[in-house]
Amino acid sequence: MSPTLLSVVVPMYNEEAVLHQLVARLRPVLDGMDVPYEVVAVDDGSSDSTAGMVQQIRTEWPQLRLLRLMRNSGHQAAITAGMTAAVGDYVVTIDADLQDPPETIAEMLKTAQAENVDVVYGVRSDRSTDSVFKRQTAALYYWLMRRVAGPHVPSNAGDFRLMSRRVLDAVNRLPEEGRVYRLIIPWFGFPSANVY
Ligand code: UDP
Ligand code: MG
Question: pTM to 2 decimals?
């Protein structure tokens, strides 16, 4: 069996303030995983120095790729661009702002392989920093989404997830433009697991 290649897609819009912190957290995790990987940084038309900084970091981190969108297109569109460009057998999407812990990526891949599932959701177990209002509206949101998209939509799973190539192929075949991945991926119904 050829070694599994992992892609990590990171949408970035004006993230110059956290970029170095992100690299400091993400790189040791990926270097320590013992799989070949690429990081696809998607600069979503940032007006700050995000793209220039990624270029700079790239000179010392060959696994880092930069994809630049012509104009600001939004979070989901940036993810779409990154997932289309990603060549991995497994693709993880993670926001740049460190709302989700990059350290979990290692566990996501392990879980996908050990349990033979196509999707691993990163579920936020700690919402203690969110306001009561934010937690209640989030609970309502996920309840409503389960009514609309089916019972597979996990609570508190944002856009931090791992997907197999099978899922990527299914996603890339969708005719819809304005995709909301946190609904579409559960709707597919591929075997899945959660990590916290
Ligand atoms: N993002 C993007 N394009 C945008 C807005 C945001 O690529 O137009 C990126 C942003 O850099 C971050 C992720 O998408 O990595 C989530 O953005 P944000 O934290 O603003 O969203 P929230 O956490 O509030 O859902
Ligand atoms: Mg955020």
Answer: 0.91
